[in-house]
Amino acid sequence: MSRAPRKPSVSETYHVMVRGVGRQILFEDDVDRRFYLEVLGRELSGSDGELLAWCLMDNHVHLLVRMGLSDLSEMMRALGSAYAVNFNRRHDRVGHLFQDRFKSEPVESDAYLLAVVRYIHQNPVRAGITPTCDYRWSSYRSYVGEAEPFVETSCETVLGMFESPEAFVRFHQAFSPGVPCLSLGDKRRAVADEEALGTARRALCDVRPEEVASLPRPQRNDAIRRMRTARLSIRQIERITGVSRGVVAGVR
């Protein structure tokens, strides 16, 4: 079945989302996160693109960018390829890292632009990682002047729509669950998977969740038992580790 063509944006502004294959994690540590942003910054500079907002979650990434559609596709291809090669090398991993091609949606109005910026910055709050949008691995702190940006972010366009920085902060303190921003699909499951990932890490202690699938069978099954003892569901373990549902279900 052929893929549906991407919908072009008249404003050349796109909300982009990419996630790990099988919802596996994309970032093991801050070294991974910094490398991703370094490559993103390099690719943006090479394409004259503009980054309006971003957020790195454990198993997915949100970007709000302004550039031509063909340039966006090329940038995401180059970014994904460079990052996957580095990630696999660092963590002794093989195979695809990202699930399918990236998702994108056009952003055509100022009202929706603001809704997307807030949605991106509220991702860690919705996942229960932080109580506020003040999350280290998003563009929010650059917007409120609390940190030097890890990657160049064009904040002026968005900030110019508010009467003051305080108004920008108040805007982010309000939730608008009815706004249909591009997401992982089932928001409740996305939040549950973020929490499940933390539970898995605590249960495994000395093993990273994405390493479980490549362990020898006895160690793999022991890791699965520990996660099941921690009350993770079979489907959550499958999504976190990449081990098939049938194998997980068969471990007692």
Please tell me about this protein's structure.
By secondary structure, this protein is α+β, with helices and mostly antiparallel strands. 47% of the residues lie in helices and 10% in strands. A 4-stranded antiparallel sheet has the order 2-3-1-4, with helices on both faces. It is globular, with a radius of gyration of 19 Å.
Number of strands: 4
Please state how the strands of the largest beta sheet are arranged side by side.
2-3-1-4
Task: Report the radius of gyration as a whole number of Å.
Answer: 19 Å
Distance between the termini: 39 Å
Secondary-structure element sequence?
A: EHEEHEHHHHHHHHH
Number of helical stretches of at least 4 residues: 11
Structural class: alpha+beta
Apparent shape: globular
Strand content: 5-15%
Mean pLDDT, as a whole number?
86
Percent range of helical residues: 40-55%
Pick out the low-confidence regions: 184-191
Largest sheet: 4 strands, antiparallel
Which oligomerization state do the chains in this entry correspond to? single chain
